[in-house]
Design a protein that fits this description.
The complex is a heterodimer. Chain A is of the alpha/beta class. Helix content of chain A is 37%, strand content 21%. By secondary structure, chain B is an all-alpha fold. Chain B contains 11 helices and no strands. The radius of gyration of chain B is 22 Å and the shape is flat. Classes of the chains: A alpha/beta, B mainly alpha.
């Protein structure tokens, strides 16, 4: 049996294994899902992505048997669940759908406590768990527990949906376009919140989307699917962006793969550049000395706490006469935190006055700067690593994996 | 599209439902109707008391015969409605389950045809063909007529539950029965109740016809007034029927308000 996960970067324990899983709907000529074999490693977010009608949702819904497979096997945590009791199976698997499907006649607390109640927990344990979950998704329990779904905004409903899916602390969560029906700004925030939550709970997550950008952002690994759920490529986002396995994948990623790749590295991952800075209150000679050392036409003035205050150039000094440094020059607008992506940094850089993005820590204290050369270097490094990796896996697996890619 | 989908669309056209009320009524709103109805009864009493009744009128228009007729009418309405619910709600549930998908369109056509036959025809048929008279025969006629609105509202109530809500319920491990009991039925309560209210109104009105097969009720007062050509008697019989109908509708409205799940 071929296993498409040989290129795994993790310890390799498989949480969900699909074996030659096939679904043929009555009255359709082609299989919706055609003999799909896929391993989902424990603790990862695996994104199934592909054009509409490729079978990605059907594939996901077979994992909790909302759709019963026509043939093949589903193995969950080493146990064959292809023909076990579906209701019991589903209580072990969190489930979030695009429309969320909160129960409108039940309070938020009751909604979140659904699975624990089905599992027969006592009411005290359920209410403790409900409060814990609501806090986990940043919703104050005392404020929201007794409200009804219609009193919540779309983003709040989505959070409740996630909390409800985590109800009985399942090992596995299935998410079907969970952020699809939410406005872009809220979606971005919820995605970030969800990634933070995932870094705490470390669930095995199968995530379906048609949006490659969301896949790149959310996925530890991405399976790009073609018609019939045939795997076009199953790999990390970095590898997919830098070494697309075939034309289908390249087309699907679309233009701007390099820009997308910038979403994958953080400012903290690349070395920051240091430029001369001056403290507020430095005298004219001190500032002139710093200006002579720097490659820019201005130096950054920091306040007593080390936070960026002004860009001050030689002209500003002359024109300003004896005025203090914080009244001269320009305010520094482009600043990002170290955990921002290179894409964020580049975005700031383009609009910034000196083509430089200032990097600060969470309290706003100056850490260093990023310029275009560093971003360039980062892209180049990423590409060469990815190409090397792709070559390596090609030679390693070429014997066993000949049938892997269509 | 399939014929089942068309049939479903067809059902929705026929839903009898009360207008959606967003907020519950105020106390004054709750009290207004009973006060008006009491005033009507009082006015009627004062009017009749002021008249010189002849012996034929006096036979119908006295406290005990009016009370008996009203009580019989309430019984006819209540018993027929309860039996209607016992038949129509479970039938509605069964007809929305996937396994009945094939027979559904045919059965609904049959039921709609059945509703086109007037109750009086059913009563006469029962009486003439089988000499089936009295209270029980009247109940059969009333139930046959009231089943359709309750059945259709039950089906529509269950079908309007959002598929995504049901998918979420099943996806979290509710069994089919559990999802029906905890999710589908509570969410269809407002629409089912609207059907029940319709059945009550139909029954309270149609029960007047039961007088023709000797089943009692306020119809007897009206029929007596008609056959003896006493307008006063006709008016009292008709007015009492109207008051009773409005009162029962009012009580059904209260029940709807109280039984509607919170959060809807």
């Amino acid at each position: 049996m071929t296993s498409p996960t040989n290129a795994t970067s993790h310890d390799g324990r498989v949480m969900i294994r699909l074996e030659e899983l096939t679904k043929k709907f009555p009255g359709q000529k082609q299989n919706a899902v055609d003999s799909l074999t896929l391993d989902i490693p424990e603790g990862d977010i695996v994104v199934l992505v592909g054009p509409s009608g490729c079978g990605k949702t059907t594939t996901m819904k077979m994992m909790n048997r909302i759709i019963e497979p026509s043939s093949g096997r589903i193995i969950l945590d080493g146990e064959d669940v292809t023909s076990s009791d579906p209701d019991q199976l589903r209580r072990r698997i969190g489930y979030v759908i695009q429309q969320i499907g909160l129960f409108p006649h039940q309070s938020i607390g009751e909604n979140v406590g659904t699975v624990p109640k089905l599992l027969g927990w006592d009411s005290k344990r359920i209410s403790t768990r409900v409060d814990e979950l609501l806090e986990m998704v940043n919703m104050e329990p005392s404020q929201f527990r007794n409200r009804y779904p219609k009193q919540l905004s779309g983003g709040q409903k989505q959070r409740v949906g996630v909390a409800r899916a985590l109800g009985a602390d399942p090992d596995v969560m299935l998410m079907d376009e969970p952020f699809g029906a939410i406005d872009p700004i809220t979606r971005d925030r919820l995605q970030n919140e969800f990634l933070r939550l995932q870094s705490e709970v470390r669930k095995t997550i199968v995530f379906v989307t048609h949006d490659i950008d969301e896949a790149i952002k959310m996925g530890d690994r991405i399976a790009i699917l073609q018609d019939g759920s045939h795997i076009a490529q199953y790999d990390t986002p970095e590898q997919i962006l830098t070494a697309p396995a075939n034309d289908f994948v390249a087309d699907f990623i679309g233009k701007g793969a390099s820009l997308k790749r910038l979403n994958l590295s953080r400012v903290a991952d690349i070395g920051l550049k240091q430029l001369p800075t001056v403290q507020l209150g430095t005298d004219r000679e001190g500032v002139m000395a710093a200006l002579r050392q720097t490659e820019l036409s201005a130096v950054l003035v920091l306040d007593g706490e080390g936070r960026p205050l002004r860009w001050v150039g030689a002209e500003d000094l002359q024109r300003g006469g004896g005025r203090p440094l914080d009244e001269l020059g320009l305010a520094p607008e482009a600043a990002v935190e170290a955990r921002a992506t290179l894409s964020d940094a580049l975005n700031e850089l383009i609009t910034a006055r000196y083509s430089i993005t200032i990097v600060v820590d969470s309290r706003g204290v100056y850490q260093g700067v990023v310029d275009i050369d560093q971003i360039n270097d980062a892209i180049r490094t990423m590409r060469s690593t990815a190409v090397a990796k792709a070559r390596e896996s090609l030679t390693d697996d070429s014997m066993a994996e000949q049938g892997r890619l269509p | 599209m399939t014929s089942a989908a068309e049939a479903r669309k067809h059902d929705k056209d026929q839903v009898v439902s009360t207008p959606a009320r967003t907020s519950r009524r105020t106390l004054t709103g709750y009290l207004a109707l009973p006060v008006i109805l009491a005033a009507v009864c009082l006015a009627m009493y004062l009017w009749i008391s002021s008249l010189e009744l002849d012996s034929i009128e006096a036979r119908s228009l006295n406290a005990s015969s009016l009370a008996i007729a009203t009580w019989e009418h309430v019984q006819l309405t209540a018993v027929s409605t309860v039996i209607t619910l016992l038949i129509a709600v479970p039938a509605g549930i069964i007809l929305t389950r996937p396994f009945t998908g094939r027979v559904r369109p045919y059965l609904l056509t049959l039921l709609n045809l059945g509703q086109a036959v007037p109750t009086i025809a059913i009563l006469v048929l029962l009486a003439v063909a089988w000499l089936f008279l009295g209270f029980q025969a009247a109940i059969v006629g009333l139930v046959l007529y009231a089943i359709v609105p309750v059945l259709l509202n039950t089906m529509v109530g269950l079908e309007q539950v959002d598929d995504s809500i049901l998918e979420a319920a099943r996806g979290m491990g509710y069994s089919k029965m559990g999802a029906l009991r905890k999710i589908e039925l509570p969410l269809s309560v407002p629409i089912i109740l609207a059907g029940v209210r319709t059945a009550l109104i139909i029954n309270v009105g149609t029960a007047t016809l039961a007088a023709y097969i000797n089943a009692g009720g306020l119809g007897e007062i009206i029929v007596a007034g008609l056959s003896t050509n006493r307008v006063t008697v006709q008016i009292v019989g008709a007015a009492l029927t109207a008051v009773l109908a409005l009162l029962i509708d009012y009580i059904a409205g209260l029940a709807e308000d109280m039984l509607r799940p919170e959060g809807l």
